[in-house]
Amino acid sequence: MQIPFHKPYITDDEVGQVLDTVRSGWLTMGPKTFLFEREFSRYTNAPHSVAVSSGTAALHLALRAIGLRPGDEVIVPTMTFTATAEVVCYFDALPVLADIESDTGNIDASGIERLITPRTRAVIPVHYGGQPCDMDAILETARRKSIYVIEDAAHCPPAFYKGRPVGAIGDMTCFSFYATKPLAAGEGGMVTTANEEWAERIRILRLHGISRDAWKRYSTGGSWYYEVEEAGYKYNMTDIQAALGISQLRKLDSMREMRKRIADRYTEAFSGTDALTPLDTRPDRSSSCHLYVLRIDPDAHDIDRAGFIEELGRRGIGTSVHFIPLHRHPFYRNSFGYDAADFPGAERFYERVISLPIYPGMTDEETDYVIESIKDVSSKHRK
Ligand SMILES: Cc1ncc(COP(=O)(O)O)c(C=O)c1O
Q: Which value, in Å, is the radius of gyration of the alpha carbons in the chain?
């Protein structure tokens, strides 16, 4: 059996929406993008949604909106993709890496306060795998210390914290619609916020810093006249991406249900095995189930995690690792002098974790094959 790590879930809905867009004659940012923004706001309860070209662009523009400056500091968990911290470097600002909870992969909210200095402007919690971080604790610290909370929700939606949808919790929330994400548009991103001024600034910055209606300057009824207000970026979404986004958004809940069913099957199979442990889930949160991460006890086996990955690959199963912590990468180590000894939670987590296949359309038979294969590799290599 061949089971890839990920397969996109594209049906006739997406094909129909894309065809409709291509035939409409309007390919780049326009009516579909704005419809996607409105529907996204409805789903997340966020007053403003601004669509952009990627999750990285969303994070970059969120930091532009708060006016980040050279020498400022932004707290970022070390267990994330480089995009979360790289955008801080765009400003010649300092990404201050924070350790994580080794049972969930999320930033350790209790460790944030001691990283705050007079130069700290924001914290970017990453909802690892789609399970929201401890937002009450993070917001309480941030409000007391007057720093912003910009959520990296690349692994959401749909995710909920104490019943509230991720997207309407922190100061700004940044989503990714990259091909493997729970809402996949190939590429794309969204910033949500309740702050109208920030939303407006991001709308202008995403299209070269030119005045708001510039997108329709080539349409009949649009004006040829525009003004450049500041140096912006080419970060707009296209209507083709938005067409994919709209159809994925409309089935977000059913796709989540399909992933949840797989996650539950994995959790049931691995609970009670002492050498294999699912990540912990907090009862007051609902995860998008974007990733299913299993912890493999390195002391219980005669092979390490890389050995597990190889053995599963030989059985036709694609897996991945989320993530190689940022402090281990040469760029962050050499530029900022990070040391693994300062991140015991992330080190413990990184040594153990393996991400298993989980996507809508994956069958029970395929899920069971993954479970049996992992149990088989584990028992063959038990010390
Ligand atoms: C946690 C996290 N943040 C940000 C990003 C960046 O998103 P994008 O690829 O849409 O730029 C990713 C993408 O993989 C991610 O996993």
A: 21
- Percent of the chain at pLDDT > 70 equals 99
**Mean per-residue pLDDT of the chain:** 96
Q: How far is the CA of 57 from the centre of ligand 1 (A)?
A: 10
**Residue closest to 78 by CA, chosen among 297, 329, 355:** 329
According to the model, what pLDDT value does residue 301 have?
A: 96
Question: Under DSSP, is residue 31 helix (H, G, I), strand (E, B) or coil?
Answer: helix
User: Which band of pLDDT confidence, cut at 50, 70 and 90, is reported for residue 338?
Assistant: very high
3-class SS of residue 319: coil
Ligand 1 atom nearest to CA at 54: 10
Q: Is the CB of 37 under 6 A from ligand 1?
A: no
Tokens 């091909």 belong to 179
Closest residue by Cα to residue 72 from 122, 112, 23, 24: 122
- Under the banding of pLDDT at 50, 70 and 90, the label for residue 223 is confident
Concerning whether 181 is annotated as a catalytic residue, the answer is yes
- Ligand 1 binding pocket mutation candidate from 60, 63, 81 (most atoms within 8 A of CB): 81
Among the options 7, 181, 260, 375, which is catalytic?
A: 181
Name the band, by pLDDT with cuts 50, 70 and 90, for residue 224. confident
Nearest atom (ligand 1) to Cα of 152: 3
Pairing between β-strand 148-152 and β-strand 48-52 as defined by DSSP bridges: unpaired
- Inter-residue contact 368 to 16 (CB < 8 Å): no
> 177 C-alpha vs ligand 1 centroid, how far in Å?
8
Instruction: Tell me the C-alpha distance between 247 and 241, whole Å.
Output: 10
54 lines ligand 1 (CB under 6 A): yes
Rounded to the nearest 10 degrees, what angle do helices 252-270 and 239-250 cross at?
60
Looking at residue 39, its pLDDT comes to: 98
Pocket test for ligand 1, best of 56, 60, 79 (most atoms within 8 A of CB): 56
Contact (CB, 8 A) for 230 and 200 = no
Q: What is the mean pLDDT of residues 231-256?
A: 98
> Does the predicted TM-score (pTM) go above 0.85?
yes
